[in-house]
Specification:
elongated; 334 residues; Rossmann fold; five-stranded parallel beta sheet; alpha/beta
């Protein structure tokens, strides 16, 4: 069999690919011209496929994306092409879930606000110093400082999107004794943390019961701009929206309106409709209600080795005519 890599990979990875493809041809195309020529009689392709490349393929059976997200990858000709498309979902799940849980913890204890105060050497507990209990009387009543700090075991974590990342987020919420509920248009398989996933028809109920709504869904035709003002209005006024899924799912102008109007209490965002987020965007000025991170939830030292291991596994499966991992429904983008 023949497999084409484009863009080309470094020498170290190429040697590992060739080591499992003895007796087969692996072409590390250094240019689009070379890739176009090589793909003519290729059986497999790893990298960034384009309409031009696909149009020159005569016997292509497998296409492997280098990323988990596919909204930037699929195109009509690829959707209708008989080749199998696989992606990289799964290698980021625990890393992204850690990031999401970090945002939940930050909001629950107002860590984002205390970091700002620390920059100004300011000692000011939320709720006011007058609420502090003394050593003599102890915490006899619920005071103003108590009311500004949450305990997660009394909160409900709502996870939208129950793929690998969503399931890992639910595990972390359950570890903090949160009540976990989940909603997904397709994945309704039960888990220990979410024994009964909810379908899309229960979206209003899902939003109304969640103290933290975490978006862990992919960008698809169904989820694009789903979280607009009308939907966010269904959330609790004291709830927080967290998006570590895809930026296109949340309409940022509507989110700003919801925060300004007090429709929700806060938002933690790692992904955005526009990236980088412009310096003039009003979200930058909403420090008390918003935590922004620059699309880094999927970054961590183990990712590169996981990425390589997965590619080698799938390549070996393809060459040995075994079932491939992470096969995608191309029409749904995941």
């Amino acid at each position: 069999m023949k497999i084409v890599l484009s863009p080309p990979v470094d020498a170290s990875r190429l040697s590992k690919f060739k080591s499992i493809a003895i007796g087969h041809e692996v072409v590390n195309a250094i240019s689009l011209k070379e890739a176009k020529e090589a793909i003519f009689d290729a059986d497999g392709f790893i990298g960034k496929i384009t309409p031009e490349l696909l149009g020159n393929a005569t016997r292509l059976k497998w296409v492997q994306s280098m990323t988990a997200s596919l909204e930037h990858y699929v195109f009509p000709e690829l959707v209708t092409h008989p080749s199998v498309l696989t992606n990289m979902r799964g290698i980021f799940s625990d890393v992204v879930a850690d990031h999401a849980m970090g945002l939940v913890l930050s909001f629950s204890r107002n860590l984002h606000r205390y970091v700002v105060q620390q920059m100004h050497c300011k000692w000011a507990p939320l709720g006011g110093e007058k609420g502090r209990v003394d050593f003599a009387s102890g915490p006899g009543v619920t005071n103003s400082i108590d009311l500004k700090h949450q305990v997660l075991s009394e909160k409900t974590l709502g996870v939208f999107g129950l793929g690998g990342i969503g399931k890992e987020i639910a595990k972390r919420g359950a570890a903090f004794n949160m009540r976990c509920i989940g909603l997904d248009p397709f994945c309704l398989e039960p888990s220990k943390e979410i024994p009964q996933p909810w379908p899309m028809e229960r979206m209003d109920e899902f939003l109304g019961k969640s103290d933290y709504v975490v978006i862990a869904a992919p960008h698809t035709p169904l989820t694009e701009k789903l979280f607009n003002l009308d939907l966010v209005k269904k959330m609790k006024p004291e709830s927080v929206l967290i998006n570590i899924g895809r930026g296109a799912i949340v309409v940022l102008d509507d989110l700003v309106k919801a925060l300004d109007q007090g429709l929700i209490a806060g938002a933690g965002l790692d992904v955005f409709e526009i990236e980088p987020l412009p310096e003039i965007h009003p979200l930058w000025k909403m420090n008390e209600k918003v935590i922004l991170t620059p699309h880094v939830a999927g970054y961590a030292p183990p990712i590169a080795s996981r990425h390589l291991a997965f590619l080698m596994d799938n390549m070996q499966r393809f060459l040995n005519r075994l079932p491939l991992l992470n096969c995608v429904d191309k029409s749904r983008w995941f």
